[in-house]
C-alpha cells in the first residue's frame, strides 16, 4: 500500500510547527491544558500534522510568552485576546505605512487621517 507524502512549503521559517505540545509546555513552564485552553479561546492556532497532532512554531512560542506576560499583569483571557488582535493590527498598519515615524509637527488628527487612508486601501 503506497502512502501519499505531503509537502508543505513554509515561507516564514518561524511559522513552521516544530514542537509537540509537551515540549512547548515544558519550554514555557506551563501545563499542556493551558495551551489547549489558549487555543480554544482563540489566542493562537498551532499547526497540525495530518494526524491532528498540534505542532507549535517559534512564532507560537513568542505568542505564548506574550500571553504569559499579559496574564502576569492581571489580564484575563478575553482581555489578552483583544490585546493580541490590537497588536497584530498595529503591526500590520506599521508595515503598510513603511514604519514611518510621524513628523514631529504632525497633529494627532493628521496622523489618524494618514493611518485611516492606509487601513482603507
From TrEMBL:
InterPro entries: DNA-bd_dom_put_sf, MerR-type_HTH_dom, MerR_fam. Residues 18-86 form the HTH merR-type domain. Gene3D superfamilies: 1.10.1660.10. It comes from Arthrobacter livingstonensis. SUPFAM superfamilies: Putative DNA-binding domain (SSF46955). Pfam families: MerR_1. This is MerR family DNA-binding transcriptional regulator. SMART domains: HTH_MERR (SM00422). Keywords: DNA-binding. One of its GO terms (molecular function) is DNA-binding transcription factor activity. Residues 94-121 are annotated as: Disordered.
Amino acid at each position: 500500500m503506497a502512502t501519499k507524502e505531503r509537502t508543505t512549503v513554509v515561507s516564514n521559517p518561524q511559522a513552521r510547527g516544530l514542537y509537540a505540545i509537551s515540549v512547548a509546555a515544558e519550554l514555557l513552564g506551563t501545563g499542556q491544558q493551558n495551551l489547549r485552553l489558549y487555543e480554544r479561546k482563540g489566542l493562537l492556532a498551532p499547526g497540525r500534522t495530518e494526524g491532528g497532532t498540534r505542532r507549535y512554531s517559534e512564532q507560537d512560542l513568542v505568542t505564548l510568552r506574550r500571553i504569559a506576560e499579559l496574564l502576569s499583569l492581571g489580564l484575563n483571557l478575553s482581555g489578552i485576546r483583544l490585546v493580541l488582535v490590537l497588536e497584530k493590527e498595529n503591526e500590520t498598519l506599521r508595515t503598510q505605512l513603511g514604519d514611518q515615524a510621524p513628523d514631529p509637527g504632525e497633529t494627532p488628527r493628521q496622523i489618524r487621517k494618514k493611518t485611516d487612508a492606509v487601513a482603507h486601501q
